[in-house]
Amino acid sequence: MVDKIYGIGVGPGDTDLLTLKAVNVIQNADTIFVPISKEGKASVAYDIIKTIIPENKKVVELLFPMSKDVEFLQKHWNNAAEKVMEENGTVAVVTIGDATLYSTFSYVWHIFNENNIDVEIINGISSPFAAAGVLNIPLVEGDEKLAILPQGKDLEKYLEEFDTLIVMKTNDLEEKLKNLKDKKDNYLVGVVNRVTSKNQKTALGKIDEIDFEPFKDYLSLAIIKKLK
Amino acid sequence: MVDKIYGIGVGPGDTDLLTLKAVNVIQNADTIFVPISKEGKASVAYDIIKTIIPENKKVVELLFPMSKDVEFLQKHWNNAAEKVMEENGTVAVVTIGDATLYSTFSYVWHIFNENNIDVEIINGISSPFAAAGVLNIPLVEGDEKLAILPQGKDLEKYLEEFDTLIVMKTNDLEEKLKNLKDKKDNYLVGVVNRVTSKNQKTALGKIDEIDFEPFKDYLSLAIIKKLK
């Protein structure tokens, strides 16, 4: 039976964005669990930490498939949680970005809490912050309001009301922004794919200046700022 | 004249939440600038990094006073920016939390950009994420929406519309939440002061279960989740 589970955010891509605490806990855990979305597919989180893992450390994959079938997902989340809880000693479960924001870790976190397991979160750098850094623009200042909308849910409404919007997953963002018609020039848009990784792509400009094609990959996000 | 300016988020309080990159840049910078809010007052950011600063490193204070007088503030921000830009070599300007979210760094960042100075942001752990970690609750999952409201601006409206709200500065949050009357039990509230520091205080519960008194200090924030 597991003693303690660390839910560790490993940041968006660059190994140097790991915190001192994350490195320390990963290096001292008895077992490290890394998420994969498909059998045989590489783990993005594992790629971020592989250079800091000591030799002979036990690393186990956890399958978190992508699906809209809630029952199917719940079955896999239960399986993943069981696998972690059956392990001995202290374990590190890693997740890209931060464990508290749209993370794979949250799917098993609930199950650990229901089982009264000792869980400690080690925060990581979240991709919207890394994106703002790379684009060299602040997210919010002073008394500005910020909203984070997965898949740009209710985008048009909140574009009016908020100073800054973050859109997680930008597959259909272009289409949504085109609906703004004559209001399109009121916004500055930054889009980033796989921020701080070797394959990072970025674009920054008015809506009509941006080629959205490279940002239809699922590890993309947008920062939309109302111009003043 | 300065060669390069690093805007470095040093996280919310615990030195171990610095990233590897932040430690490396701080230790190798020619000069480290630390913000203070008043002459003679300790710098929270400096307290976070002091144990990792090499001996004999040049550390300079930058005064960012608190005021509602925009002209007075602008004068101090200009002075602070001048002081940094006049320095030789590479400099680190540190800020608590992350440099992109309501940071003191953003006040001088604009001035550096206007002067075409080479700026690089090194992200830090932002306090809302650390707070969620410490409270052992996810901020958002799946397709949930999140808003960050400084001083709880438009709180009542967005409590209805968002799954999770983060309120930065909670001085008058209690009063605002009391206005919810019979809807008060629809929410779970977590409040945290000086998260991850030695003086951290936390509370988690329904609105009527929380004593808001200890959270009227300016380094407090709240996470409000709609119960389902």
TrEMBL record, chains A, B:
An individual GO BP term: methylation
- The answer to keyword Glycosyltransferase applying to this record is no
Question: Which of UniProt's keywords are assigned here?
Answer: Cobalamin biosynthesis, Methyltransferase, S-adenosyl-L-methionine, Transferase
Stretches assigned to coiled coil: none
Q: In which pathway does it act?
A: Cofactor biosynthesis; adenosylcobalamin biosynthesis
Q: Which NCBIfam families match?
A: cobI_cbiL
Q: What is this protein called?
A: Precorrin-2 C-20 methyltransferase
Q: What is the source species?
A: Methanococcus maripaludis (strain DSM 14266 / JCM 13030 / NBRC 101832 / S2 / LL)
The organism's taxonomy opens as: Archaea, Methanobacteriati, Methanobacteriota, Methanomada group, Methanococci
This chain is encoded by the gene named cbiL
